[in-house]
Amino acid sequence: MIDRIADIWGTRTPYARGGHWPDRIDQLLADGVIESEVDRWVQSACVLCSNGCGLDIAVKDGAMVGVRGRAADLVNHGRLGPKGLFASWQGVSTKERLTRPLIRENGTLVETDWDTAMDRIVERSGKLLAEKGPLSHAFYTSGQLFLEEYYALAVLGKAGIGTPHMDGNTRLCTATAAASLKESFGSDGQPGTAADVDECDAIFLFGHNVAETQTVLWSRILDRLGGPDRPAVVCVDPRRTEVAQLADVHLALRPGTNLALMHGLIRELFVHGWINEEFIAAHTLKVEDLSAAVEKWTPEAVAETCGVEAEDVRRAAEIFGTSERVLSTVLQGFYQSSQATAASCQVNNLHLLRGMIGRPGCGILQMNGQPTAQNNRECGADGDLPGFRNWENPDHVNELAALWNVDPAVIPHWAPPTHAMQIMRYAEQGSVGFLWISATNPAVSMPELPRIREILAREELFVVVQDLYMTETAQYADVVLPAAGWGEKTGTFTNIDRTVHLSEKAVEPPGEARSDLSIFLDYSRRMDFRNKDGKPLLGWAGPEDAYRAWQECTRGRPCDYTGISYAKLRGGSGIQWPCNDERPDGTERLYADADFPTDPDYCESYGHDLLTGATVGPQAYRAMAPGGRAVFKTASYAPPHEEPDGDYPFRYTTGRTAYHFHTRTKTARSKPLNRAAPDAWVELSAPDATRMGVLEGDIVSVRSRRGEIVVPVRVGDIREGTVFAPFHYGYWDAGGSPDGHPRAANELTMTEWDPVSKQPVFKNAAVQVKRVAAGAGPSPAPTTTASRPAGTGAYGASHGSAGHDGAGRHGSPDSRSAYGNGANTGQDGSAGDGAIPATAIPATGIPTTGIPTTAIPTTAIPATVIPATVGGPDAEVQETFPLPGADGKNGDRS
Ligand SMILES: Nc1nc2c(c(=O)[nH]1)N[C@H]1C(S)=C(S)[C@@H](COP(=O)(O)OP(=O)(O)OC[C@H]3O[C@@H](n4cnc5c(=O)[nH]c(N)nc54)[C@H](O)[C@@H]3O)O[C@H]1N2
Ligand SMILES: Nc1nc2c(c(=O)[nH]1)N[C@H]1C(S)=C(S)[C@@H](COP(=O)(O)OP(=O)(O)OC[C@H]3O[C@@H](n4cnc5c(=O)[nH]c(N)nc54)[C@H](O)[C@@H]3O)O[C@H]1N2
Ligand code: SF4
Ligand SMILES: [Mo]
């Protein structure tokens, strides 16, 4: 048994390049339940990140009582991370679930029955459609529903109502992944596969803290790093994450400067001739545009703009240029930062320049974050047209009209689909009067929360919220619908490397909760949406019907599902699309033949100008005659819109910790996870903290032009001048509103987005930091991850020994007394019993600048007394190591 809170990645199973990643079956059962007592194991996969690890759910007496990884699954070979082990089932099996619909009566939400709740929705919907037409309606959904649910929503929205105002929180998440793939290759679709980890010689992680955000993928990388032919690692991240700790080169750039760095790396490839001219000539377009754009970005120019060492830029480029097989991953450090699409396209460009695509070990993973973000994009619940069809191509619109048997004119295609931030703007202005929010919590996750709260609270706006819990967003609803969650409904979803999994219903939902699919189908029925023959638009009886309809929609498209049936998904491993008659076993890597989906009649998009976001349009695109070639796209570097100045001297960036998922509706309801990260914090660098006289645990006010948070400080390993806040902490477990205790990271972020992908810029803003009070002990930040105390970073901290090597840098034996000799057990994040000596720091009046570094000795920051994040007996997980080739105990059986 192993404590998987303290040891996030579990036991190492090293392997060599080209070898089989050894199986390791991770299993957790509820306290007191032994394996022989489990009634059934039900096949599923984890929905707490985009990795989508295959697992089985343990059921006893009609309740979920645990999980175990599926050894046969190509994604995880049996492993599960902390969220999968604890939150997947604990996060839905609580008494706090919504069990009945709620409606607003005289300002208060009260319980009601389904007919009353649905009637109220249908009445308002019908009235608005009659009076104001389809543009009065907007749908804001998720990256966490099942494929079948998105497809139902997409069809009812596009063919039933005919509104272009439809998007998902995928806009906040991986809109840039889709955009960069469309721009470079003509269509969405992940070129690489997780198995590229097994084959590569180098791994580049661009703004991706994979160690915390896809912990099982990181386990696979760790096992290669521990094997005989360790791949090189390059990390681009302003914080010293676990990834950075193990990197050969860590480019800790200034937030917001990714594009400049990328141009520098590309320039080095040209200068040293590390390019594949044959491949470029045969399979790409516009290389001259790229070489012109990068011309001025010498390593020295990059160093100045990005705040990194020129030598490190050279070393990183050399690794890319001289390795035979490079795997690249890109995530929010790029997608949620300035010039997101332009910067992300440069990763595609690096691979195209070297002809490194479609071969083992040469993967590009423009990562997803959410488990089912890919399906939202495929099905078009994000506003795109289903099956990666192009809204600017009338033939594609006609195909859908024929498939659904509706008039093509109903399907919105006269303008680009409305993105989430614009939907909020229309709601603010009043043209949208009906907003249906499913499986997302914008009152915590959208930028500039003071504004979002105002919009959701508008009297004129009718808000439907469909969730498992009474969230911050649900508080603003006119109707709240209780949804069935994971394990309580059947459906499919597709992970980061196009692997499709079936998740079967294991238990009944609580109370009257219903699946999102049945809710959407019910709405469609009550609205009486019909096709041209007068038949119901959505006549599906259940998920498998919806899935079959979806298979037809994908026939001949890049995401071809026609060869993947429910039956085929039962038993062994998930299957990677495209899968059809020609490729009955699925497809491990796209573009093995370097034939890209850029043909004008086939492509998903005609592309954009990456600097301004202007669309290229059909004429100009056809004139380019792409003919199956990829396109080198770029833009010139532009500094972030908000940069530090005298009033707001710090750069503010936000992100995640390993122990929580988003707004914590599931993870905070798992005891072991919540203990590990019980409350909000901000990270400050040791030099900045010293300069301001701020000690570990002190309470600071962080303020931007939009709002304020007041939270304790973790003095950590972050770039000087940068402040990091986790965005997990809203208010549902803290009194319901920010009044008096604002702590949500998005109180401070900006209403700004990338011109191409429209993804909000969550990772850059200017803020000021002021100390407001002494802390009662260390901040509640985890000590095992990127938020560990400054200087305690040696790998191995994951075994609960954080703090062991910090003394040399910050701690002196005397300073221990400041925190009461480590009385804090860390179990519940409660403070230690020692107070900070009053003399150490004046309580008020500390300006953010101007204190000489020497005024406060660095030894005042006692890193050594901060306790490790501790799991406890209920964090103990069983790991089994089947012999290679042996049938894993959950192998092909289900
Ligand atoms: N534990 C956990 N795992 C998750 C999730 C979760 O909430 N919790 N959510 C899932 C989802 S939906 C997503 S989208 C993914 C996100 O996964 P990641 O993208 O890995 O997570 P983040 O912490 O948002 O951001 C990654 C890193 O970007 C860095 N960064 C900040 N600004 C910049 C910049 O300007 N440039 C660069 N290069 N880096 C910068 C941050 O320091 C941070 O370490 O995680 C998925 N997995
Ligand atoms: N500052 C800052 N903000 C960010 C980010 C950041 O890095 N920094 N990251 C952004 C990213 S990448 C993302 S993905 C978003 C995530 O932001 P959100 O989507 O708002 O976060 P979640 O907490 O995942 O919200 C999902 C909701 O769906 C509910 N739910 C779960 N399963 C089901 C189901 O089956 N049916 C229904 N109906 N409901 C269900 C959950 O209870 C929860 O309330 O946040 C974004 N916001
Ligand atoms: S890596 Fe992601 S999918 Fe796998 S168990 Fe962890 S949270 Fe779930
Ligand atoms: Mo995300």
Description:
Keywords: 4Fe-4S, Iron, Iron-sulfur, Metal-binding, Molybdenum, Nitrate assimilation, Oxidoreductase. Residues 39-95 form the 4Fe-4S Mo/W bis-MGD-type domain. Belongs to the prokaryotic molybdopterin-containing oxidoreductase family. NasA/NapA/NarB subfamily. With 894 residues, the protein is an alpha/beta fold. It has four domains: 2-90 and 875-880, ADC-like domains (N-terminal domain of TfIIb); 102-174 and 383-563, Rossmann fold (3-Layer(aba) Sandwich); 191-367 and 597-631, Dimethylsulfoxide Reductase, domain 2 (3-Layer(aba) Sandwich); 642-777 and 783-868, Barwin-like endoglucanases. The chain has 27 helices and 29 strands. The protein has a seven-stranded mixed beta sheet, with helices on both faces. A six-stranded antiparallel beta sheet has the order 1-29-2-5-4-3, with helices on one face. It binds ligand MGD (2 copies), iron/sulfur cluster and molybdenum atom (MO).
What attributes characterize this protein structure?
29 strands, 4 domains, iron, metal ion binding, Rossmann fold, Dimethylsulfoxide Reductase, domain 2, disordered C terminus, binds ligand MGD, molybdenum, N-terminal domain of TfIIb, Mopterin_OxRdtase, binds iron/sulfur cluster, 6-stranded antiparallel sheet, single chain, 7-stranded mixed sheet, 894 residues, binds molybdenum atom, oxidoreductase activity, 27 helices, alpha/beta
